[in-house]
Amino acid sequence: MTYKIIIADDHPLFRAALKQAVGQAVDDVEVIEADTIAELQRAVLENSEADLVLLDLNMPGAHGFSGLVFMRGQYPGLPVVMISGTEDIQVIRKAIDYGASGFIPKSTSLQLIAEAIQAVLNGDVWLPADVQGRIDRLDAETCEFSEKLATLTPQQFRVLGMLMEGLLNKQIAYELDVSEATIKAHITAVFRKLGVRNRTQAVIAVQQLEVERPVTPE
Fold first, then answer.
1. pLDDT single digits (tens) 174-215
2. Which intervals hold domain Response regulatory (predicted)?
3. Alpha helices in the chain (DSSP H)
4. Predicted confidence band at 140 (pLDDT cuts at 50, 70, 90)?
5. Residue 93 shares a structural domain with residue 163
6. What does pTM read for this prediction?
7. Residue 218 above 70 pLDDT?
8. Where on the phi/psi map is residue 166: left (φ > 0), alpha (ψ -120 to 50), or beta?
9. Is 97 within the bounds of a domain?
């Protein structure tokens, strides 16, 4: 059996490291690489039979866990393992609650990453040994919003991401090569699905999925 594994990370060197770990995990594998959320969406569309996605938490085009939530909503049968430079227990907790099949800190050795990949391909959920059993559940309100976000279509998700960046309707229309009327229709649908009334409420709601970074003393 030939496995298909998608590596989504915007750092070429770490993609190379993950590719090496994948090679250690399985003998017969095809690796597809993506460096943005848009590239990831394209990769999944072109490889619908993929077995696993290794997804960097801080991918261009996503806000916090929004990329993970979107993937789980659109492709519920495709396991997604989060990759991150953080080892914060709260971040790991959220990743699992949002549907990740595992969480691999970037400090993890190649051998252990390979073991994690093998475990997830076998149907297990993989977590660093020192955090297993310490995962609390997310509050109901945050989970409810993630379920709403997961109902967005790929195009609606792209539009929402551009709203988060502060782009105007005409700028979004230009970027996506569609009419402003089409963008307005997408935005109306996004607001309806998320249960918000305007851009500000949408931004505030999506910020629930952002990863809180520790404040460092000046």
1. 999 999 999 999 999 999 998 888 888 888 888 777 755 443
2. 4-121
3. 12-25, 37-46, 66-74, 89-97, 110-121, 140-149, 154-164, 169-176, 180-194, 199-206
4. low
5. no
6. 0.71
7. no
8. left
9. yes
Nearest of 67, 68, 65 to residue 101 by alpha carbon: 68
% pLDDT > 90, the chain? 48
Which is nearest to 65 in space by CA: 44, 89, 50, 84? Answer: 84
List Cβ neighbours of 55 (8 Å cut-off, separation of 6 or more).
8, 9, 40, 67, 68, 71, 80, 81, 82, 83
Q: Which domain holds residue 10?
A: 3-121
What token pair was written down for 4?
């298909």
The whole-number pLDDT of residue 58 equals 86
42-65 pLDDT tens trace: 999 999 899 999 999 888 877 788
Which of 121, 149, 174 terminates a domain? The answer is 121
DSSP label at 177? T
* Same domain assignment for residues 48 and 147: no
- The CATH number assigned to the domain holding 115 equals 3.40.50.2300
User: Please, which pLDDT band fits residue 216 given cuts at 50, 70 and 90?
Assistant: very low
| Mutual angle of helices 66-74 and 140-149, in 10-degree steps | 60
